[in-house]
Amino acid sequence: MIRINSRSIIVIGFVLVFLGFLLPFLMVMKILASTYFLNFFSFTVSLVGLLLGLMGAAQMSVEARRSRDE
């Protein structure tokens, strides 16, 4: 199993949330055509980014607690 650093997970989550913001913004500015696929894709990317960010923050707090207890 691949072990990813909690900071990396948070950075990936931030990039996905930013992409989930950028795509609808570009659709509203009429730079990108608004399609069902792109709408659902931007929602999914934003949701996955939010969940990854929360998981990374939780993992970081667990790691900090473990290092503090040792």
Give me some keywords for this one.
single chain, 70 residues, elongated
Counted up, domains total 1
User: CA-to-CA gap between the ends?
Assistant: 25 Å
Oligomeric description of these chains: single chain
Number of strands: 0
Strand content: under 5%
Structure classification: mainly alpha
Uncertain segments: none
Large-scale geometry: elongated
pLDDT averaged residue by residue? 93
**Biggest β-sheet: count, sense, barrel?**
none
Output the number of helix runs. 2
Radius of gyration: 16 Å
The helix content, as a percent range, equals over 70%
Order of helices and strands: HH
Description:
The protein has 70 residues and is mostly helical. The chain has one domain (6-63). The protein contains 2 helices and no strands. Helix 1 (6-28) packs antiparallel against helix 2 (36-69). The protein is elongated and about 55 Å long. The model has no long low-confidence stretch (mean pLDDT 93).
